[in-house]
Write a structure and sequence with these properties.
This protein is mostly helical. Helices cover 70% and strands 3% of the residues. Strands 1-2 form a two-stranded antiparallel sheet.
């Protein structure tokens, strides 16, 4: 298998594109077995996790098949090229969003725990005003997402940790931008977002950090559920990503 080294800043999508080039050129033929993960990682010049992610996605949409105990093989009936431009690229993009959400869950649970310990009447009032703004903008997608963003920034302010607030801002902005590529004209369950946000403020006011963290996870789970609805394959992909597909 012949490959070109990929820069360290490349994504699993670029690994996929390089593999597709090999399929198109005949470097990989139907029935061929993929080289070991370590060998692919060295050839592409990327980490083994990126190789695993790319191969997992390609297995999911039908390019490769896994034979337990033997390895990963190029299928005889591989998909047409347009699959990469739709389903495969969507799976990779959606998985990137889920990775961001996973990171955000850890940060925001810490944020709400700190807010529960530190927030006073002034901070609670600001949070309730933010929830009211989300409720008032439930029918307008741009205003709704801006209000939701403001609510999470108010939570970060209540934590009194500016470093955490700065990190959270970057992550939320990236998630919103990427998520809108999938749902540019559709709201993400505003009713559930409003209800969970209101309950979250109640728990922070009551100084119940554990309950606040649980509700935050429920709140962030709304986006996960919508991604799975739009791209059902993402559930299978998340399971496959942790599989050992290639021998070391």
């Amino acid at each position: 298998m012949k490959v070109e080294s990929i820069q360290k800043t490349s994504t699993p999508e670029l690994v996929v594109r390089e593999i597709l080039k090999n399929i198109k050129s005949g470097g990989l033929k139907p029935g061929d077995k993929l080289p070991p993960e370590r060998e692919l990682s060295r050839a592409f010049g990327v980490g083994r996790s990126s190789i695993r992610e790319a191969i997992s996605a390609m297995v999911l949409v039908g390019y490769f098949e896994v034979t337990q105990g033997k390895g990963v093989f190029l299928r005889e009936d591989i998909p047409s090229p347009h699959v990469f431009n739709s389903k495969l690229s969507d799976v990779l993009a959606a998985y990137w969003i889920l990775d961001l959400i996973e990171t955000r869950e850890h940060i925001e649970c810490s944020v709400v725990r700190m807010a529960a310990a530190k927030a006073g009447p002034k901070e609670i009032e600001k949070l309730r005003e933010s929830v009211a703004a989300i409720r008032g903008n439930g029918a307008d997608i741009d205003r709704f997402y801006q209000s939701d963003f403001d609510f999470h920034m108010a939570l970060a302010d209540a934590s009194e940790n500016p470093v955490m607030a700065g990190i959270l801002r970057m992550i939320i902005e990236k998630i919103h931008a990427d998520y809108m590529a999938f749902m540019p004209d559709t709201l993400c369950r505003p009713d559930r977002a409003i209800e969970t946000a209101a309950r979250l403020v109640d728990r922070i006011e009551g100084k119940d950090a554990d309950a606040a963290c649980a509700i935050m996870l429920e709140h962030l789970g709304i986006v996960k559920a919508e991604l799975v609805r739009i791209i059902p394959e993402i559930d299978q992909y998340r399971n496959r990503k942790d599989m050992v597909l290639l021998e070391s």
